[in-house]
Amino acid sequence: MAEKHEKAVKRFGVRYGRTIKKKLGLIEAQQRKAHQCPYCRYPKVSRKSAGIWHCSKCNATFTSRAYTVTKPAAVKTEQDLEI
Ligand SMILES: [Zn+2]
Fold first, then answer.
1. Does residue 16 share a domain with residue 52?
2. How far is the CA of 28 from the centre of ligand 1 (A)?
3. What are the pLDDT digits (tens) for 28-83?
4. How far is the CA of 4 from the centre of ligand 1 (A)?
């Protein structure tokens, strides 16, 4: 059965080549999934535009990477330091 990221690039049909579509599919799957909020830790963060992320739980809007949310060093908590 086709993976989610493979389905997402079906819109291109046979065009543009297999490898580049596979790469795009992986990035799009990453950017569309719900990410963990660095402030409230709920997986409720969605992408507004390139690098702009919004948490629907605590209403925080913040910048991170273009296609994914990484944990910024500034909001590290004590839980992070234990690891
Ligand atoms: Zn939040």
1. no
2. 22
3. 998 999 999 999 999 999 999 999 999 999 999 999 999 999 865 555 666 666 55
4. 26
Ligand 1 center from residue 33 Cα (angstroms): 15
Q: Using CA atoms, how far apart are residues 21 and 32, in angstroms rounded to an integer? A: 16
Query: Which domain does 75 fall in, by range?
Result: 34-83
Cα-to-centroid distance, 44 and ligand 1 (Å): 7
* Residue 47 CB-density burial (10 A; 0-12 exposed, 13-18 middle, 19+ buried): buried
pTM score of the predicted model: 0.71
